Amino acid sequence: MNTASCKSAITYIDGDKGILRYRGYPIEVLAEHCTYMEVAYLILFGDLPTAPQLKDWVFDITHHTMLHETTKKFMEGFRYNAHPMVMLVSTCCAFERLSRF
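Request: output the structure for the sequence above.
Response:
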């Protein structure tokens, strides 16, 4: 009832039957047998990665997502009880702003 109906090449949902699939794989199988990085690869590229593809994918993600220490200091500036989504959106906006300079 709370999910919009649309056609998708990535996700198939039949709530009445309790079916959720990503790229044809049941969510239960992915949750039990795959890592987060394998599922991310599946969603982006359409197939589960081979061992060499997964190794390259993990290397690329790990080495291209490094953040500067100032990002940590920026996030520490929020109050201890700040909502996590507000912190995330604000930090992303700061990245966008700083990337222009």
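The beta strands are 11-14, 19-22, 25-26.
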